[in-house]
Amino acid sequence: MGSDSKITNQLEEKYQKIDQDLEDHLEGLLYSKPINYWDYIQIDALLNLQITRTSFPDEKVFIMYHQISELLFKMILSEIEQIAENDSIDAVIFTDKIMRISRYFDVLTSSFSIMKDGMSIEQYNKFRQTLIPASGFQSAQYRKIEFASTELINLIDKRFRDTIDRNSSYDNAFEHLYWQAAGKDYKTGKKTYTLAVFEERYKEEFIRFTKFYEKNNLWSKFKSLPKEAQKDKDLVKAMRHYDLTVNVKWVMAHYNTAVHYLNIGGKTTDATGGSEWVKYMHPKYQKRIFFPDLWTKKEIEDWGTNIL
Ligand code: HEM
Which H/E stretch holds residue 291? Predict the structure, then answer.
């Protein structure tokens, strides 16, 4: 009695709801194989995803490290989604989630140098020739993390941020996002192939995604908390930590990696995506800041220089 009949009743109820016979499902259970680790985690699929274009061993490292980064991006997006969809979130849960997201970014930041210090510069500069014109610039999940973290205005290219009409169309805002600078000649409007194919593949998806997140991004969610919660010391500290980790620490780890591989003997090589990467990648130029109101004027002025 007790728990046995309780679970049977619950099962009966579950299948009744969808017009299914419990007996049939129990029979299925009788024949189904027990689960094991490798099937559950999809190990075979996972370990077969490293398809190289050359036979340099370090190309596998390069692919795997990108794949690890994309998996962490997915975990980050999943946490942000939980904040966005929670209509009764309070300062404690908000802080907890932001810190978890930050820890994922901490992993991304510290692991960059682990990859960088092991992967051969010589091999990289050979296999990268087979990747042109692909670039991490085309990571849609990274763009989604940004869209889900702040309002569009904070992602507008620094040169246009103060003058752009805040109520302008999404299309106009999109054309002035900071990352357009990596692949667009603003005078002629001509886009590089890397940027053009990226938009062809993802622009529609970004529009759908942004429709929800323009009101539910982390910054808007924070501002919709009661005034008292917005002053919560732990929450403000967590928000600042996240902003700095993504927009300075990760960006600098990435920039230093690019310098390591693409600036040899003081001579700068073109990136696979073709941007003017030295200027484009350094945080002091773009000053991307998700939560600008949480920083002082001086901290913003110093962004990406001596803020660390
Ligand atoms: C050897 C390692 C790497 C080098 C040398 C490198 C270099 C670059 C360069 C030069 C750019 C500027 C765009 C271009 O012209 O291509 C870029 C953009 C980008 N890369 Fe990497 N990268 C590396 C690893 C990674 C990894 C592991 C990720 C993780 C997914 C990544 C994600 C990105 C993203 C998201 C952008 C766009 C950043 C932005 O718009 O500010 N990169 N990378």
Answer: none
What is the rounded radius of gyration, in angstroms, for the C-alpha atoms of the chain? Answer: 23
Residues 10 and 110 in one domain: no
| Of 68, 69, 135, best ligand 1 pocket probe by most atoms within 8 Å of the beta carbon | 135
Closest CA to 123 of 227, 192, 52, 21: 52
The pLDDT tens digits of the residues spanning 202-259 come to 999 999 999 999 999 999 999 999 999 999 999 999 999 999 999 999 999 999 999 9
Nearest to 118 by CA among 67, 65, 71: 65
List the residue whose alpha carbon is closest to atom 37 of ligand 1: 137
pLDDT digits (tens, 9 = 90+) for 248-266: 999 999 999 999 999 877 8
Query: Does ligand 1 lie within 6 Å of residue 179's CB atom?
Result: yes
**218 C-beta closer than 6 A to ligand 1:** no
Which is the closest atom of ligand 1 to the Cα of 262? 5
Query: Residue 62's domain spans which residues?
Result: 58-301
Residues 16 and 122 in one domain: no
Number of domains in the chain: 2
The model's pTM is 0.93
Length of the chain, please? 308
